[in-house]
Write a structure and sequence with these properties.
CATH class: Alpha Beta
Low-confidence stretches: 241-248
Radius of gyration: 16 Å
Largest sheet: 7 strands, mixed
Strand order of the largest sheet: 9-1-8-2-7-10-11
Bound molecules: D-malate
Structural class: alpha/beta
Number of helices: 10
Strand content: 15-25%
Number of domains: 1
Length: about 250
């Protein structure tokens, strides 16, 4: 199996993913929030690449019965039901709900992977579960780091490296691209100090300044759930049954 890491979604076009298996990562905070929504019983999440499309999707596709969640400049968007803090996606709020989801980087990266055969949603919260689903004897895996505004981000690349480590525990015979080797090195360096790593990262500092320190602590937890969301046919659903939720 060959594992490639895409350090920012700007490096590839949508069609690059045709027929491939991919994993999308935006640990601060979109993919951590999506995983949490499913831990708390959300029915489905529809990621969108633009605010305009979030209005159309929530008003028409689901008969106006959806919630809207996400952020712009880390803040909840006017008219939305939920922001992008995992703490908002409690069982009381999201159980059984369809959620149209827009964020600055994460939802766009997920939408970009839409031609993949399967596109798994990964955060530190569910790395081991994603590894079990994504590992293959042959073929290739594309790990997409959502990054920030088209730039590389430390936290997503560390998560990519941790995922590669986890996959190699199951299938040691992997071929790694240069970007995957870099991700693996960063995982060695920061894997046992995720919260400290968040605090020195550009996006982590922005979230800290905006008062979201609790989100950093939450998103730095490793493997607290088996929930593996998968994006297919424009909708994210989850592969494993809902588990007890540690964040209630
Ligand atoms: C994003 O998609 O850019 C992030 O999830 C932003 C955030 O921290 O809310």
């Amino acid at each position: 199996m060959r594992i490639n890491t895409i350090l920012t979604p700007l490096m590839v076009e949508e069609l690059y993913f045709a027929g491939k298996i991919s994993v999308v990562i935006d640990v601060l905070r979109a993919t951590s929030t999506i995983v949490t929504a499913f831990m708390n019983g959300a029915k489905e999440i529809v990621p969108v690449g633009s605010l305009d499309f979030s209005k159309i999707a929530s008003a028409s596709s689901f008969g106006g019965r959806t919630m809207r969640g996400g952020e712009k400049n880390t803040k909840k968007i006017e008219g939305f039901d939920l922001g992008n803090s995992p703490a908002e996606y409690s069982e009381e709020k999201v159980s059984g709900k369809s959620i149209v989801f827009f964020t600055t980087n994460g939802s766009k990266a997920i939408v970009k992977s839409k031609y993949s055969t399967n596109s798994y949603i990964c955060s530190f919260l569910n790395i081991a579960g994603v590894a079990k689903n994504a590992v293959k004897k042959e073929g290739s895996l594309e790990i997409v780091c959502s990054g920030r505004n088209g730039d590389f981000s430390l936290e997503d690349t560390v998560c990519a490296g941790m995922l590669i480590k986890e996959i190699m525990k199951i299938e040691p015979e992997v071929e790694l691209s240069d970007a995957s080797l870099v991700a693996l090195d960063l995982a060695e360096k920061y894997g046992d100090k995720l919260l400290d790593m968040f605090k020195i990262s550009e996006h982590g500092k922005i979230l800290l300044a905006a008062g979201f320190e609790d989100d950093l602590k939450y998103c730095a937890q490793l493997n607290i759930t088996d929930v593996v969301p998968v994006f297919s046919n424009n909708t994210i659903k989850f592969l494993t049954p809902k588990k007890d939720t540690p964040n209630k």
